[in-house]
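Build the 3D complex.
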Amino acid sequence: MKFLSSIFLGLIAFLAISQENTFNLMPVPSEYLIGDGKFRLRKDFKISVSGPSESRVYGAANRALRRLDGRTGLFFIQDRIDHTDEDPNFAMQIEIDRTGNLELFENESYQLSVSPTKINLSAETDIGALRGIETFLQLLDSDESGYYFPEISIYDRPRFPWRGLLIDVARHFMPVEVIKRNIDGLQAVKMNVLHLHLTEDQGFRVESKVFPKLHQLGSDGKYYTQEQIKEIIKYADERGIRVVPEFDMPGHATSWFVGYPELASLPGPYSIERRFGIMDPTMDPTKESTYQFLEQFIAEMAALFPDQYFHIGGDENNGKQWDENLDIQKFMLDKDIQNNYELQSYFNRRILEILTKNNKQMVGWDEILQPNIPKNIVIQSWRGKEAMYEAAQKGYYSILSHGYHIDLGKPASAHYANEPLPNENPLTEDEEKFVLGGEATMWGELVTPETVDSRIWPRTAAIAERLWSPDFIYEEDDMYRRLEVTSLRLEELGLQHNRNYEMMLRRLSNGYNFEPLKTLVDIIEPLKIYARHNQGVKLTSYAPFTRLADAAKPEAIIARNFRKFVDLYIQEKDPETLYQIQKWLVKWKDNHDSFKKLANKSPILRKAVSLSKDMQSSALIGLQAISDMKLHSRKWKQESKVVLDAAKKPRMECELMIVSAIEKLVDNAN
Amino acid sequence: MKFLSSIFLGLIAFLAISQENTFNLMPVPSEYLIGDGKFRLRKDFKISVSGPSESRVYGAANRALRRLDGRTGLFFIQDRIDHTDEDPNFAMQIEIDRTGNLELFENESYQLSVSPTKINLSAETDIGALRGIETFLQLLDSDESGYYFPEISIYDRPRFPWRGLLIDVARHFMPVEVIKRNIDGLQAVKMNVLHLHLTEDQGFRVESKVFPKLHQLGSDGKYYTQEQIKEIIKYADERGIRVVPEFDMPGHATSWFVGYPELASLPGPYSIERRFGIMDPTMDPTKESTYQFLEQFIAEMAALFPDQYFHIGGDENNGKQWDENLDIQKFMLDKDIQNNYELQSYFNRRILEILTKNNKQMVGWDEILQPNIPKNIVIQSWRGKEAMYEAAQKGYYSILSHGYHIDLGKPASAHYANEPLPNENPLTEDEEKFVLGGEATMWGELVTPETVDSRIWPRTAAIAERLWSPDFIYEEDDMYRRLEVTSLRLEELGLQHNRNYEMMLRRLSNGYNFEPLKTLVDIIEPLKIYARHNQGVKLTSYAPFTRLADAAKPEAIIARNFRKFVDLYIQEKDPETLYQIQKWLVKWKDNHDSFKKLANKSPILRKAVSLSKDMQSSALIGLQAISDMKLHSRKWKQESKVVLDAAKKPRMECELMIVSAIEKLVDNAN
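Done.
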């Protein structure tokens, strides 16, 4: 530790502008200095841990040792690390001062130094050490002599203290193992909050012992038992990750009303919602019985979820049920409540009282930022950064999820560029401190346990970096390079984003060779934003999320690479680049016949034939554009544009991601 | 039901000898009659269920509907099936008489008829209906007009009432989700017993509230809580699968002694065993305190596991600790116990008393078949069929696992041919009834949660068929054809046997294109029986099971197909066959350079380079053997044999599975 401090003393300023070699680190550490040496990994590699015996480091060190051994096949002699393994002669030394508290603002910093003979990891808290262990694992490299760690000295700490992922387990239920493997993913990229969106119109996902009809009638039998919630919380705690529960109210609450219609603003009966969208059913904020119910319910959940923060949702209340209920109208008149907005504000203050009584801090979507709401709440800004800035200016803590909505299917680069505090932001330095960080939000309309990992990963790693690393780390291509490596490493934790891609292609191919399908799906993406909902099929809870648009990844990397190559070629006219472009185009042109044959054997693919045909036509135009055939008349260009315009049209909720680049080739053809 | 009965009345004899079209059914049903029509599957397909509202059929029908919709992408209108969905106009009618009891000998038969307009499934019990639903799902087919079910009438029932899979969760712990997805696999192939081997020298895997040091000190923290055990049992129950727990005693018990050394025959301290093999630590059968402990422990576990049967292991006690303990020697002298064999018999009788008091039937490995042991026990025969026959002749129930040890890595055909009651067996017809069935045994030395599915599936489906279908269903090639389809269908249940193959290849390839590795691994198999333990590496609990031998499947289907083609070619000299053989050989010959390059970038593969080289050399010889180059001198044959002999040598715990066929080509070369 002393060694490191002295090294860093004079170097910090230098390091801040010199991070050119980012290795495969993601997120990139705050500060580091690279040496020339290599620490050789051999089977006698051993880890010594010192610190409190109940610390999280033992578990993490054991998992790290097994992951390293798994990657390298070295058969480490050390089997299981415990407190009896404290030995200064072991090659790797992990030292911590204390067990960290799993709460906001806890110290997550660490120092890691690799010399040719020794690896030292030190941190004030075990949580910091966990972050350092992941950096250590990311440093593994190899050369002709075998595996090694590069010589390096790292001092690292997060830029923001709240770096989270929301998983909506309500619209589609996600079994415990899905949550666990995603917690592992979060830990690997140094995120520290799992936000569980637990209730929705489409489902109530936690066992309530006080009001059992909530889960019994509101979930189709798909909910977490309280034991399972404890299991998830323990698993997350061991990985230094907070679990923040969200119970969305007063809207998005149909599933509550199936068992307890008396909570709603209009009489029932209610049934679990299968469609998606903003629904009318809303809690009645004027009845004392509503608060009596919520008082008991929140007390039960506050005891179940140990985190200091408790999310009450509060979004997208359309107020229709309130408008239609005469008692509610009378209540508003009596209490001089001007509109539904103020009525929700009244509701929120009542809920805040209950939460305060239970020693919880309230978090809510940006709708809850209403006049007269006390300062001890946290605003989660989903509609834009403005709400976040407004909150900060008024002295509220806030977290950003606008720009991190990974369910919208945007590329990693878009999220990566979403800087919470860009230079031109309106906040003073003091106000900036109220911005706690951000959360990627995995809304659950269109995902199932089979596809959810591919919607979360690897793109969430780019958001993790935005929230952890210094703001001068923003180079997009380098991010993508590291994202690819990170994606592969995430697989070793059990994440299914790559595995299920192939499995889904196999199923779509009805057991036949899926190569022609893969060639197509490799360059398509599901429609972005909410466009999938308007393609003539009804996407409900029980729709088959097993089709082309579900197999296709949100970001088709091969298509991205093709577009990059086309841009490069247009700039530099390099023959190597041209050759690679040509190879792709030929592959896409030649694929159609085998695709047609495959679709004949697998009816689920038949509607994709026209997509495949358009891939072929586009590729053919691309090949013509780069040829020397003197074909490039104005007429050819016009006709090509017509074909390409048609190829851009979405089908099967997907779009071809190579057409825009082929257009550029046409525009640039002689 | 009446319709079916009348059809079958006169046809059973005919059907029994005419099952030529087995579709993709696995296991093949007992009796069926095929029609020419097709039931067209459309989005308005609906299922009506009638029977007791608490029956297992609702859950199963819902899962079936979702699986069908997932495969076909038809967007069925019906969302969730419950008892309000009883409607005679729905296309599929499921009728049951009663909820089945999850116990041995329960009725699992069903009748399924598909006509062009209607599908009827009827069964006495819901468990029978569950079996029928799986048959229904296996019948899905497609043609140019879309998806359909072929016209068929099936009457089906199991040949044996005990059709199980043992999973050893003790030597390597298997998390709950591994167990759940394998339960789904069992249900899909109509097996009905999950036998959990819960304790071993290497780990004690169940929470004991009475003796908490068992799991706290005996498991490295890897155990099922009692809540998780209940979760597993409930999940299995919903799928008509019994869970039989095994607590191995008096040997294989080191992990018990870490917390309770006083149970052992020699003083401790003990620590969790990391090596594999037959270990010395054994319970002391002469101390009353041992039985007092077991009495409390068994009472706790008997209440936790509802199944009527309770497995006490009883295998591989080497008796060394007993020989070394003077008190035990004195006890034997006092009680006139002649040898360790009799002492274990004494122990077993004491345990049997405890089990009887807890209303449990005892099951044990064949060692427990000792004189004077009462008849109300079940013998699980693992050392050979003889013990099973002996047991049956003496009037003991028995189940067969010898020949079904899937951990040994033998081909599916070997297990498939392992008929429990072949024609020449020594049993009378009455004695045969004591043979209850069999169990595939997935012993856990060499498997992890990542690899276990690929060791269980798809081969276990062949065993499932052996135990369910009539004995006249035995054609090997047809079994392999159906096994391939079944393997793909099992993926949709979450099983990882194919997915993790590719994931492991990606990891081994360090993120580079894994094709050259796949070409090699596609034709190698891990060494069979126990040979992997003698290859110079120490395979312990914590060894890295991430290497070539772990990625390689127990049965390399491409190599099998190659061998079949070579046999066919030698018989028939068909040019088409020759062309296919040549294509393979060229691919294998040409692979080596890219493999070498890949191994350069991934040190874990370096020791496999010689395997790849030998694949190349063998393939080259194969190509020479089928060429017309007049090369085939005696000298060439001799030299080739030397090369091929070398290529047969195991490396990295693997062997090339194409060499024997190439030898045949050489032998048959002109």
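Chain A touches chain B through 58 residues (CB under 8 Å).
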